[in-house]
Design a protein that fits this description.
About 50% of the residues lie in helices and about 5% in strands. It has 2 domains: about 60 residues, Rubrerythrin, domain 2 (Single Sheet), CATH 2.20.28; about 350 residues, Citrate Synthase, domain 1. Helix 7 packs antiparallel against helix 18, helix 10 crosses helix 18 and helix 14 runs parallel beside helix 17. The strands form 2 sheets. A 3-stranded antiparallel sheet has the order 1-2-3. Strands 4-5-6 form a 3-stranded antiparallel sheet. It is globular, with a radius of gyration of 23 Å. The protein has 18 helices and 6 strands. With about 425 residues, the chain is mainly alpha-helical. The chain binds carboxymethyl coenzyme *A. The site of carboxymethyl coenzyme *A has 21 residues, from helix 17.
């Protein structure tokens, strides 16, 4: 292959398109001049082969099971770093120096409180509202409290202010959306606590009892957030970039990302996994039945937490999470039969030709729910936890997209509807 150009032959005519390469030897055919040169567009439903951007944030090699944030391997970051440091790395491109990290952390801690009127909006939701809906609505409502955030020409200092504010406030809003479901009074943030301890305190502290934060819980949560922090151009991140490309604000773009994450094929799968494992437990662990259902094309059931658009070997996050799950359960002395069911199901699926031939492996969501359960986080909050983790990635990608001055996201289509026809008025139909 001539690595500089690709040729496309339509009829007798040959067109040339430049080939562009990344730093990890990935190549793309740049078709930005395709329509003007040929009159054709491309169709790629689900964007399975389409690179929407060039990005310097996250590298994934799905065949080799590699995931790196800004060049650093995910397992090294999960072992040696913490969530706020990783957030800084993703958003600003480099690990912070000690002084920068301290300022960053202090700034985030300072902004954890949300306006009292946010509580009134929260009060308007029915108590059985799904916390993801509450989360996205309240994030969107922050535009009303910070109207300057709507200005598309904000300075980078002002944008950095919004970035810190939303990182600080999302755990507060998330914990409050959970308290709302239980009809419990909200707990205000305690700024002397670290990011994850503060979140746990706002979730579980009770007015009449002293709540002691278990450091194993806080540490496990911190690692889970790191593992979720970015994953290049997935459904929710692509949404954040497309919404932001219209010059919508950070709050509006992140709110859209939260909604995109909610679906069971994306972040909602972690809730789906536990519901599936509980269902299998209730059904006398009839694994065969559920494996058969997931393979049946006439049945909508899928093995939740299995398969990935990019990973065709293993999901490196799933490997780390599986180890954290058994460590957390052991150290807390929790014996959850659901972990045994998950391990058994994984072992059966990995020997089954259907899953092997399609390269379907456990993904990040397969074991994360088991840890959340051990941390007493209710099932409906699982996807909210994913959103807390993914926030730095959304912010980094939004910032990169705006700094690169990317054009508004606006795909083409091939129209397949009716051709021109005459309107017949109602009385003559
Ligand atoms: N159970 C059974 N069959 C499956 C599964 C599954 N979990 N996942 C994929 N397949 C089959 C699918 O039916 C198809 O078979 P065939 O070629 O015979 O038509 C083949 O595998 C390829 O699947 P696909 O749906 O074309 O692949 P995709 O890249 O469009 O979808 C996915 C990826 C993650 C949406 C899909 O694997 C899935 O629905 N998994 C279950 C939900 C899940 O765990 N989602 C979380 C993803 S990881 C967290 C995140 O980043 O969001």
């Amino acid at each position: 292959m001539n690595k500089k150009n690709a040729e496309l032959k339509i009829g007798d005519k040959v067109y040339e398109f430049p080939i562009i390469g990344g730093t990890e030897s990935e190549y793309a055919i740049d078709i930005s001049s395709l329509r003007s040169k040929t009159g054709f567009v491309t169709i790629d439903k689900g964007f399975k082969n389409t690179g929407s951007t060039e990005s310097g944030i996250t590298f994934i090699d799905g065949e080799k099971g590699i995931l790196r944030y800004r060049g650093y391997d995910i397992d090294e970051l999960a072992q040696k770093s913490n969530f706020l440091e990783v957030a800084y790395l993703l958003i600003y491109g480099e690990l912070p120096k000690t002084e920068d990290y301290n300022v960053w952390k202090d700034n985030i801690v300072k902004h954890t409180l949300v306006h009292e009127d946010v509580k009134s909006i929260l009060d308007g939701f029915p108590s059985n509202s799904h916390p993801m809906g509450v989360l996205s609505s309240l994030v969107s409502s922050l535009t009303a409290f910070y109207p300057k955030s709507l200005d598309p020409n904000r300075s980078s200092d002002e944008i950095n202010g919004t970035i810190k504010r939303i990182l600080a406030k999302l755990p507060t809003i998330a914990a409050w959306s959970y308290r709302k479901r239980l009809r419990l009074p909200v707990v205000y943030p305690k700024n002397e606590l670290d990011y994850c301890s503060n979140f746990l305190n706002m979730m579980f502290s009770m007015p009449s009892e002293d709540y002691e934060i278990n450091p194993i819980h806080a540490e496990a949560l911190d690692k889970l957030l790191i593992l979720h922090a970015d994953h290049e151009q997935n459904c929710s991140t692509a949404t954040v970039r497309v919404v932001g490309s219209s010059h919508a604000s950070i709050y509006a773009s992140v709110s859209a990302g939260i909604n995109a994450l909610w679906g069971p094929k994306h972040g909602g799968a972690n809730q789906g996994v536990i519901e599936m494992l509980e269902m299998i437990k209730e059904d006398n662990c009839d694994y065969k039945k559920y494996i058969a259902k997931s393979k049946d094309k006439n049945d909508d059931f899928r093995l939740m937490g299995f398969g990935h658009r990019v990973y065709k070997n293993f999901d490196p996050r799933a490997k780390i999470i599986k180890n954290i799950a058994s460590d957390v359960l052991n150290s807390l002395g929790v014996n959850d039969p659901v972990l045994d069911i998950a391990q058994e199901l994984e072992a059966i699926a990995l020997k089954d030709d259907y899953f092997v031939s399609r390269k379907l492996y456990p993904n990040v969501d397969f074991y994360s729910g088991i840890i959340y359960k051990a941390l007493n986080i209710p099932v409906q909050m699982f996807t909210v936890m994913f959103a807390l983790g993914r926030l730095p990635g959304w912010l980094a990608q939004w910032k990169e997209m705006r700094e690169n001055n990317e054009p508004i996201g606006r795909p083409r289509q091939i129209y397949t509807g009716a051709t021109k026809r005459e309107f017949v008025s109602l009385r003559n139909r």
